[in-house]
Design a protein that fits this description.
The relative contact order is 0.10. The longest helix has 21 residues. α8 crosses α9. The chain is mainly α. It has 12 helices and 4 strands. The strands form 2 sheets. The protein has a two-stranded antiparallel sheet. Strands 2-3 form a two-stranded antiparallel ribbon. The protein has 3 domains: 31 residues, no CATH class; 92 residues, Fumarate Reductase Iron-sulfur Protein, Chain B, domain 2; 88 residues, no CATH class. A hairpin with a 2-residue loop joins β2 and β3. Bound molecules: iron/sulfur cluster (2 copies). The site of one iron/sulfur cluster has 15 residues, from α3, α6 and α7. One iron/sulfur cluster binds next to α3, α6 and α7.
Length: 251
C-alpha cells in the first residue's frame, strides 16, 4: 500500500544544513534536505480488527486508499490535518502511535456522510471515524467527546421513559458538559418558539418537562433495551481486550 504524503514525515525528522559543500558543490539550505530514518517498533497488529469490531468500523478492510473520502470531506476543507483516508491507512497497517498523534481531531467528524457517498468501496468512512473516536475513548486515550455525551443523555432518557423530551435532554447535556443553561442562542430560540407555539402545545410541553411522563407498560421494553445495551458494551470491550464494566449509569 504505497503512500506518498508529506504529512507522514515528522518535521523533527527533516534535516537541512545551512552551509554544506560536497565535492566542491554548494548544497546549502533546502538542497541538502534529508529525512532521518526511523524504526517503528510499536505496531498493534490487532488494530484493524479492534476498529472493525466496533459499530461503524465493520468495512474498513475494503479500503483501497483512493482518497475520495478525504477529497469530499467537509472538515478536511477547513482543516487539512483531518484526513480519514490517512487514518484508515494507519489503522490497516497497525500504526497505533501515528494514529494517536491525531487523537485530538478525529472526533471532529460532523457525520455529514459526504465521504460515505463518495467511497467507491462501501467502506462507510463516517462509520470508521465514529468507531475510531469510540476506540480512542474506550482505550482511555481521549475523554468522552460532547457528541458521545449527547448520545448517552439521549439514550438514557429513551431507556428510562420510552419518550424524548427535548428540554430535559438539552438540560442534561449542558449539566454533564459543564455548560450554562442560559446560553444566548438557546434563550433566543426558546423565545421565538414560545411566540409561535399554540397555547395548548405550550402547556403540554411544560407539563412533560415537569412530570416526565413515561410510555405505558414500558418496564419490559426498558429491561430488554438495558440488557441489549449492556451486551453490546460488553462485546465492544471484549473485542478491545478490556475488562467488562456493567453500564450501571443507564437508568
Ligand atoms: S462524515 Fe466525517 S469524515 Fe465523512 S465527510 Fe463528513 S466530516 Fe468528513
Ligand atoms: S473513499 Fe473509500 S476506498 Fe477511497 S480511501 Fe476513502 S475509505 Fe478508502
Amino acid at each position: 500500500m504505497a503512500i506518498h504524503e508529506k504529512s507522514l514525515i515528522r518535521p523533527e525528522n527533516l534535516k537541512t544544513h545551512d552551509k554544506l559543500v560536497i565535492d566542491g558543490v554548494d548544497v546549502s539550505g533546502h538542497w541538502s534536505t534529508f529525512i532521518e530514518p526511523r524504526v517503528v517498533t510499536d505496531y498493534n497488529e490487532a488494530l484493524q480488527d479492534e476498529i472493525a469490531a466496533l459499530p461503524g468500523g465493520e468495512h474498513i478492510h475494503r479500503c483501497w486508499q483512493c482518497g475520495s473520502c478525504t477529497n469530499s470531506c467537509t472538515v478536511n476543507a477547513v482543516n487539512p490535518d483531518f484526513n480519514p483516508r490517512y487514518w484508515i491507512y494507519l489503522i490497516r497497517i497497525g500504526m497505533e502511535s501515528e494514529l494517536l498523534r491525531d487523537k485530538d481531531i478525529i472526533w471532529q467528524c460532523v457525520s455529514c456522510n459526504k465521504c460515505t457517498y463518495a467511497c467507491p468501496r462501501d467502506v462507510v468512512p463516517e462509520g470508521v471515524m465514529k468507531a475510531t473516536a469510540h476506540w480512542l475513548e474506550l482505550k482511555g486515550h481521549t475523554p468522552k467527546s460532547n457528541s458521545q455525551i449527547f448520545d448517552e443523555v439521549f439514550t438514557e432518557q429513551v431507556v428510562a421513559t420510552g419518550k424524548i423530551e427535548e428540554g430535559r435532554t438539552i438540560r442534561g447535556f449542558f449539566a454533564r458538559t459543564g455548560q450554562p443553561l442560559a446560553q444566548e442562542w438557546l434563550v433566543e430560540m426558546v423565545k421565538r418558539v414560545a411566540r409561535r407555539l399554540p397555547f395548548k402545545q405550550g402547556i403540554a410541553m411544560a407539563w412533560s418537562t415537569v412530570f416526565r411522563p413515561k410510555t405505558k407498560n414500558w418496564s419490559k421494553a426498558r429491561a430488554a433495551l438495558g440488557e441489549y445495551i449492556h451486551e453490546q458494551e460488553a462485546r465492544n470491550r471484549k473485542a478491545l481486550s478490556l475488562p467488562d464494566r456493567h453500564s450501571g449509569d443507564l437508568h
